[in-house]
Amino acid sequence: MDNIQILHECKDSRDDHFANRRSHAQDDFIGETDEADILEHLESIESSTSFHATQSMSSVHDCLKHVEETHLFESNIAGQRYDGLLQSAEAEDIIASDSPDLEAEWKQAYDQRRDEWKNRIMNQGL
Which domain of life does the protein's organism represent (predicted)? Predict the structure, then answer.
């Protein structure tokens, strides 16, 4: 009998606790809100997002510049040389492009390069 009473007291305490939390949460959002405050808040969110997007694009350009400077993707396999991964204007076009066929073009170019690489490797082994 004592255990049942303790169980009910715990449940009552839990219910009171959550009811108290709900009332505080409602009080935070029910105050007098001004449309100007809401608009200001939304504008700050947008400016923050656009700032992060600008920073991200800047990081991409810096990364591509360093890749070009260090010749990271240069190779000299079977007498062929692949220099200059992307020019900066090309990088912007690729990054900003919304073409639905772009993915298919990339896959086709990848498949072609893979097949050429396999053929070179097989011909070197003979």
Answer: Eukaryota
Q: Which has the minimum average pLDDT: 10-14, 19-23, 96-100?
A: 96-100
Round to whole Å and give the CA distance between 14 and 17.
Answer: 5
Question: How many domains are contained in the chain?
Answer: 1
Neighbours of 86 (CB within 10 A): 16
- The domain containing residue 19 runs over which residues? 2-124
* Separation of alpha carbons 109 and 89, rounded Å: 19
DSSP assigned state of 27:
H
Helix (H, G, I), strand (E, B), or coil: what is residue 86? coil
User: Which three-class secondary structure state does DSSP give residue 96?
Assistant: helix
Interval 16-56: pLDDT, tens = 888 888 876 665 555 556 788 888 888 888 877 777 888 88
